[in-house]
Specification:
alpha+beta; Elastase, domain 1; 4-stranded antiparallel β-sheet; 3 domains; binds zinc ion; 5-stranded mixed β-sheet
Length: 446
């Protein structure tokens, strides 16, 4: 009658080394105690099976392969494993869950206690972290540019936020709606970090992924919400390509239409609104942005203008029409050059005749690598394999948030876009070979 977890186990958990587990257990006990007391005076036929919401985390280890999910290494309430990546992922999943639950009353990504799944040590020195629609996947980083991705709680918050978006407004991962998907993920990721550190909007660093670059990189983070375009400027990575306002909007077909690039614009709108409103960001602008998601106040193909209009409406509903919060939200969008309403137009990239063009883009940074080789330069079996890929590629091979996206064009005959996580290893090796042979140099669009 005290729920799934018996009180004696909860008592033990209150002394658990992980304070989120112990706090959760303590809350559960308090609720259970309240229920017991009530039950002695209330109608006895009501059998409560209520346990205070708590995260349900499962961390798996891919052991440096690309096989998902890998071996389970830590379940909810388990003690630390001693593996840094697994334990960091566990804690960061908890911090994200706690923000959603304690500030917005939402039990996990779907509002119904969805288990939080993560796999660490994905691939061989894999340079990315992504959300595959089911779980968070973390590479270890190559040690040259990137350290492990689990060390940054905002990266974890970012990835999980893709799951939150998927469960609410489900913004299409392409063009402006894709950039909004990216921006909302950055916003939630930053809120997770700010809340964990107890920072106000004025105190926060507004960086995403601070500390995940090695010392060899000239840069402080992946992105800056306060000053898009200033997070890094490096020989290998190039310069942070993010625009800070619509005047510098980047038209591109790479990176799913520049989802990691143009997200700088709505990111800065959020930063401007949050700092102008003041206090804790999750109470002001964060609350408004969350309301737009939770209330499904935009269509899945929303552009910046539609999203801006929704936040202004949400601020009015939350804080009152004409309230300072609503005024600041509207002013923030004006500042970045977004006028509420008006649609966008996208243009497809032209295919080049007699050429095999291979492009790898996306990832957390939205970097672009392109190779073009004459069709005749490829052995026939390789050409055949790529042509057959168009018919055999699995439905789950779609691009996923922050995953790498491959676009393969063969003259006028083939033009496919697939997510790297869905490609067979042998095809991936083939594509990497073409990229090495024909790359025109590591490119940064914009
Ligand atoms: Zn993302």
């Amino acid at each position: 009658m005290n729920g799934i977890v018996p009180p004696y186990l909860l008592e033990r958990l209150t002394t658990h080394a992980d304070e989120r587990v112990s706090a959760c257990a303590a809350r559960t006990l308090t609720v259970d105690e309240t229920l017991r007391v009530k039950r002695t005076v209330a109608v006895p036929t009501v059998r409560a099976t209520l346990v205070a919401p708590h995260p349900q985390r499962t961390i798996s280890d891919a052991a440096n392969t690309t096989a998902l999910p890998g071996t389970t290494v830590r379940r909810e309430g388990d003690p630390a494993t001693g593996d840094v990546a697994a334990d960091e992922a566990y804690d960061a999943l908890g911090a994200t869950w706690t923000l959603l639950q304690e500030e917005y009353g939402r039990d996990s990504l779907d509002g119904a206690g969805r288990p939080l799944l993560a796999t660490v040590h994905y691939g061989d020195r894999y340079d990315n972290a992504f959300w595959d629609g089911e779980r968070m996947v973390f590479g270890d980083g190559d040690g040259q540019v990137f350290r492990s991705f689990t060390s940054a709680v905002d990266i974890v918050g970012h990835e999980l936020a893709h799951g939150l978006v998927q469960a609410t407004v489900d913004l299409v991962y392409q063009g402006q709606s894709g950039a909004l998907n990216e921006s909302v993920a950055d916003v939630i990721g930053s809120l997770v970090k700010q809340r964990l550190l107890g920072q106000t909007a004025a105190e926060a660093d507004w960086l995403i992924g601070a500390g995940i670059f090695t010392d060899q990189v000239q840069g402080v983070a992946l992105r800056s919400l306060a000053a898009p375009g200033t997070a890094y400027d490096d020989d290998v990575l190039g310069a942070d390509p993010q625009p800070a306002s619509m005047a510098d909007y980047v038209e591109t077909t790479s990176d799913n239409g520049g989802v990691h690039i143009n997200s700088g614009i709505p990111n800065r709108a959020f930063h401007l609104a949050a700092t102008a409103i003041g206090g804790h960001s999750w109470d002001g602008a964060g609350r408004v942005w969350y309301d737009v998601l939770e209330g499904r106040m935009v269509a899945s193909d929303a552009d910046f203008a539609a999203f801006a209009a929704a936040t202004i409406r949400a601020a009015g509903e939350r804080f009152g029409d004409g309230s300072p919060q609503q005024t600041e939200v509207a002013a923030a969008w004006t500042e970045v050059g977004v006028a509420p309403s008006a649609p966008e137009a996208t243009s497809p990239a032209p295919a080049v005749a007699d050429t095999v063009r291979v492009e790898r883009s996306g990832g957390l940074l939205g970097r672009v690598h392109v190779a073009e080789v004459p069709e005749s330069a490829l052995p026939q079996p390789e050409r055949d394999r790529l042509v057959s890929l168009a018919e055999t590629v699995a439905p789950e091979a779609r691009p996923v948030p922050d995953g790498y996206t491959w676009r393969i064009e063969i003259s006028q005959r083939v033009d496919i876009t697939v997510g790297e996580q869905g490609l067979p290893d042998e095809v991936l090796a083939l594509l990497r070979g073409i990229l090495e042979r024909g790359e025109r140099g590591s490119q940064q669009e914009g």
